Amino acid sequence: MSLREIDGSQTLRYDISVVIPTVGRSILKRCLRSIAHGSELPRRVIVVDQSSSPQIREWLRALEELGVETKHLPSSQTGRASAVNRGIECTNTEFLAITDDDCLVAPDWLRNMRAHLIARPNTVVTGRVEASGDEKVPMVVTSMSPATYSRPRLKFDSLSGGNMGVALVVMNQVGLLDEDAVLRCSEDGELAYRALRAGVPIKYAPDALIYHYGWRDTGEREHQYREYAKSSGGFYGKYLQQGDLFIGLRAIVHYLRELRRLLRAAVTRNDEHLRMSWACLRWLVPGILAGFRSENARVASSVNSDR
What is the pLDDT of residue 74? Predict the structure, then answer.
């Protein structure tokens, strides 16, 4: 049965592809269904599968009935960065959009993302991330105020990896995601920093909306907070290894902000913020040390597509 019967009101866009990394979570089917329900459809959907799930081919065949090209790319590698990179390397359209297998896109997500990319093709576009599902979501971005950033900030460089779009030529300019395991959960932050340093702006467009589906229980979220902290430290450590003093200042600001949030959470009895901030205060510095010692170079900067 089709994910959706085409109703004649949708437009197939031949200049944009969607890349989705997956570890075989069943929520992927709902992710694909949300794309199928979009007011515009991509030319191609590329799912990079690190799980060898036999169901994914079936889900993609259903999407093909809507006229969308699909590619199921099994991968023996691990880590989101490598999966996204292998998907980008298979892109053969002018633009690409990236989301995750536990994200559901809004009906006008692709239309709005594409419109922003056409208006500013030299810009990386990112969008709003709202929470969905029964469990808490570790990271959301809910601001309704558009913004464009042209240089790195001491806070964070606004880029949600599960909700981003970019021209393939810009991806060639900036380079692929860093596949080093020491920044396993901070590959998007490192990409944002590298893009801004290369003179590529990042545009936050709140009308490019996705819903991050919450599926992690308390224990799984605590583990994720530890991984976020260690990976952020890994990112900082790799740049400190290169003598980047700005990153050193950012790491200090990051630590102090989390200390302030921990104290506020203790006063307000916000258990989730307590878990998040404690994980950062405990694991950020070990992550920095691991990044500083890392000998793994960033992946090659060019994108070798199968065009």
Answer: 94
Place of tokens 């205060």: 281
Contact (CB, 8 A) for 113 and 205: yes
Q: pLDDT tier at 133 (50, 70, 90 boundaries)?
A: confident
> Which of 146, 199, 166 lies closest to 88, judged by CA?
166
Q: Are 233 and 290 in contact (CB under 8 A)?
A: yes
H, E, C per residue of 227-250: HHHHHHHHHHHHHHHCCCHHHHHH
pLDDT score recorded for residue 295: 87
Residues 6+ apart with CB under 8 A from 106: 34, 209, 210, 211
Decide which of 214, 232, 249 is a domain's last residue. 214
- Over residues 107-130, the pLDDT tens digits come to 999 999 999 999 999 999 999 999
CB atoms within 10 A of CB 58: 11
Helix segments in the chain, DSSP class H? 27-36, 55-64, 80-89, 109-119, 168-174, 187-197, 218-241, 245-268, 271-293
CA-closest candidate to residue 39, choices 105, 96, 107: 107
Task: For residue 29, report the phi and psi dihedrals to the nearest 5 degrees.
Answer: -60, -40
* Average pLDDT of span 84-101: 97
Q: What is the mean pLDDT of residues 127-146?
A: 90
Q: What is the pLDDT of residues 40-60, one digit of tens each?
A: 999 999 999 999 788 999 999
Residues listed for the chain: 307
Which residue stretches of 136-244 are H helix?
168-174, 187-197, 218-241
- 162-190 as b/e: b if 16+ CB within 10 A: bbbbbbbebbebbbbbbbbebbbbbbbbb
169: domain CATH number is 3.90.550.10
Tell me, yes or no, whether 149 and 74 share the same domain.
Answer: yes
Beta-sheet pairing, 95-99 with 147-149: unpaired
Q: Quote the number of domains for the chain.
A: 2
What is the C-alpha to C-alpha distance for residues 290 and 288, in angstroms, rounded to an integer?
5
